[in-house]
Amino acid sequence: MPGTPKIALNPIQWMASADGWLDPSLAPEPKQRLSLIKQAGFDALMAEVPAGFTVEQYLALLDETGLTLAPGYFVCRSDGRDGNQGDVVASATEVARQHARLGMTEIGLGLGMAKDRPRVLHPGQGYDADDSRVEAVTALIGQISDAMLAEGVRPSLHPHVGTWIETEEEGRAVLDALPSSRLGFLPDTGHLAWAGADVGRFVKDYAERIPFVHVKDCRLSVAAEGREKDWGYQQTVLAGLWVEPGRGELDLAGIIGNLPSGFDGWLMVEVDRPDIADPYESAQVSARWMHSTFPAQS
Q1: H/E/C letters for each residue in the chain?
Q2: What are the pLDDT digits (tens) for 4-39?
Q3: pTM over 0.90
C-alpha cells in the first residue's frame, strides 16, 4: 500500500449525457460545483480554469470553497501526421503556462476522441494498430513535452480508450521512447482494464514515473462483452461499464498497491458515467470509499 497519497476528484459525473458521452454544459455553474465537491467529501479537484474565469478569479473561488488543486489534463488533438502539430504544441504551451500559474508542476496528456473515429466505433481492441502512427504520435508528444517543460510543467502520458494510444503495448512504446525527465505516466485504471491491459503489472513496471493516477472502476464483464460484440464506445458505456470506485470488478486497492511505498502523489477519482443516478450521491459514495480504503488522507 502506498504511503500518503492525496485524494482528488475530476467531477465528470455531472457531465454524463444521455447518449453515453460527456457534455460539460450539463455541469452546475462553477461556484455551485465546487461547493458540491467539498460537501461530498473531497478537499481537492482536477485543475481546470472555468470558461470566463481568470486564473486569479479561479484561485479566489477555490479559496472561498476550501478546495485545493490536483493536476489537470491536456488533450492532444493530432495523430502527429495530420498537419496540426504546430497548433497543438502552441496550445500545449498555453495550457502549461496557465497550469504553472495555478502552482502545478504536473499535467496529464492524452490524445483526443471524436464520435466518428475508428477506435471510438471499435473501442478497447487496439483497432487499426499502426506502428508508424505510434512513432508519429511519440514524436509529437516529445515536442509537447519540451514545450511544457519550458513552462515548468511535466506532462504524463494517459493511454485512453478510443484514441491512438489505447493499448498497453502502445503506452509502453511511447514511455520507452521518452525518458521520465520528459514524460511521466498517468495510468487510468478503468481505461487500461477496458483495453485488456494487465493494469497492476503496467503500474508496477513504470511506478517511479507516476505522479498521479486516475482511479476509475468498471465492470470487466461489460468491457469483455462489448469487445466480443464489437459495441461502440457509447454503447459500451450505456451498458453499465463505469461505476463508482469499489462498486465494480477491478481490484483498485491491489492495483494502487503497486505504486512505490512512499507514494505521495494524487489518486484522482473519475466516474465517467455514475452508476448511482444522482451525481452528488455518486461523489459522496466515491469519497467515502477512497477515505476508508486510503485512510492516510481521511
Answers
A1: CCCCCEEEEECHHHHECCCCCECHHHCCCHHHHHHHHHHHCCCEEECCCCCCCCHHHHHHHHHHHCCEEECCEEEECCCCCCCCHHHHHHHHHHHHHHHHHCCCCEEEEEECCCCCCHHHHCCCCCCCCCHHHHHHHHHHHHHHHHHHHCCCCEEEECCCCCCCCCCHHHHHHHHHHCCCCCCEECCEHHHHHHCCCCHHHHHHHCHHHCCEEEECEECHHHHHHHHHHCCCHHHHHHCCCEECCCCCCCCHHHHHCCCCCCCCCEEEEECCCCCCCCHHHHHHHHHHHHHHHCHHHC
A2: 899 999 999 999 999 999 999 999 999 999 999 999
A3: yes
